[in-house]
Amino acid sequence: MNKKEVLRLFDKEMRGDITYPPLRREETEHLVRHVSPTPDDSGVVLFSRLSEENAEEVIKQELEYFSSLQQSFEWKLFDYDQPANLLERLKGHGFTVDEQEALLVLEVAQAEELRSLVIPPEIRQITDSAGIDDIMQLKEQLWGSVNAELAARLKRDLAEDPEHLLVYAAYSGDQAVSAAWMYLHEGTSFGSLWGGSTLPDFRNKGYYTALVAVRVQAALERGYPLLMVDASPMSRPILEKKGFEFLAYSYPCFYEHK
């Protein structure tokens, strides 16, 4: 993999040019932001071109802008973004920073083992809201709560654009025991992988690998050459063993509107 070229493509396609309906994409001289149509949802600054000279002023402008909308927002920061101390600057303005994530990318054409893996019959594609409810029950068993916003978004996206959201779960009888999904980002080279939760009693049965493989095979079939994931420290070594390569660290920085 030519990591420099893939990172350039990632910046252009997945940070600079992409849109996320129903969010409204706005581009200024210094950054690209996505704004929610309602104050109840959050916006995001996805890409920035800042310098030591203008960083403070641009950060203040964004705080004022989202405050005028009465909207909380995330600043998605990558470790190569400039200036080099941008993370510390955001913290200084009251942003809270979630756990560091590793941006991993897989070249689908090189993932021979995953492309040829026979998908076990326990893996089913989810095509309706009842299947999403099964996945939410799985997550509630794992984490003790359900992310209602995630459930609503998956149901909406699956109903409105099933060509670009592919959801899968491993079942034991009628119970979802492992689940993951993938967005195929139209007009880009990338699919993005999400989820990957498995109930403890069903780990080490190959479900995680099968869920990665079924998404690799779907991406290949639909002509998406690259898959990306924001990996946690737990999932990073597993994915790297399957051919994903590390490109950068990212930091989700959140500002809560009060």
UniProtKB/TrEMBL annotation:
Its source organism is Brevibacillus fortis
Alphabetically list the UniProt keywords: Transferase
Using the record's annotation, list all stretches that form the N-acetyltransferase domain. 121-258
Q: Which Gene3D superfamilies does its entry note?
A: 3.40.630.30
* UniProt entry tagged with the keyword Transcription regulation: no
Instruction: Tell me which SUPFAM superfamilies the record gives.
Output: Acyl-CoA N-acyltransferases (Nat) (SSF55729)
Task: Tell me the protein's name.
Answer: N-acetyltransferase
Taxonomy of origin reads:
Bacteria, Bacillati, Bacillota, Bacilli, Bacillales
> Would you say which domain of life the source belongs to?
Bacteria
UniProt-recorded Gene Ontology molecular function terms:
acyltransferase activity, transferring groups other than amino-acyl groups
